[in-house]
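To: structure desk
From: M.T.
Subject: fold request, one chain
Message: Could you run this one when you get a chance? Sequence is below, nothing fancy, just the single chain.
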Amino acid sequence: MKVVNRTGIVALMIAAIFSMAALAQKPELRSKVSSAKAEDAQPTATPDTDVAADGSQDSPEAEAILPYYNNYLKEYRLGPADVISVEVFGQCPDYCKTGITVPPNAKISYPLVRDGIMVAGKTVEQVADDITKKLDEYIIDPKVTVTLDKAVSTRYSVMGKVVTPGVKSMDRKISVYEAILDAGGVAKGGDKKKAYIVSYNTGGGLTKREISIADMESGKSQMVFLNPGDQVFVPSKGFSVDTFFDVLGKVSVVRFLFGSPF
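Reply: Done. Structure tokens follow.
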């Protein structure tokens, strides 16, 4: 019986040792399983793609023209009928106003400012600075933001292969030829025989009209005058009107500036 008991005890001890070894291995096994799952969960690498804020992919053509639209909007000078909003951080609704239409005298009313704020000829940043100075007497370190909700002033643009492309205000009736001259003329490599006027139609789509700058210069064709919101495009090798169309159709700043309803 003693032999049997010793044998049983030895067997129990061996079983206990194996059990302890198995328990010691379990965390390691769990760690390996967790590690494997983590590796499986790693995202698949994808090529980096630069995408503009409005969803359009960057391209050399877009980079060649979009800064002119963006800079114009940033430097836009306010005038009658433009619509702006004012927000003061942490002070809404008392000092926040939305949908302010600039009146004919270009002076907007604002809380605590008895004489109003003159906004004519100023950028939204300059108006924000003016309001900040006025509120500084009543609010500690006011954080003022002024945004342009709607730009009403009449504009046109000249893009493509011209000396100084850009967006300009239309303060008079202007022909395509004058617009291109104001942009410094057709640059080297530009196509004088086949330029385009690009416009938004009433449905919000883009339309194009082919014109010849060379024929206008020589008197072979009549002068063509621009309508508000028209965009003149002078193509060149590698930068076609179709590419210009594609860029304009994707960027929200152009729709904002030139009157598309979308």
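Reply (cont.): The CA atoms of residues 16 and 22 lie 10 Å apart. Let me know if you need anything else for the meeting.
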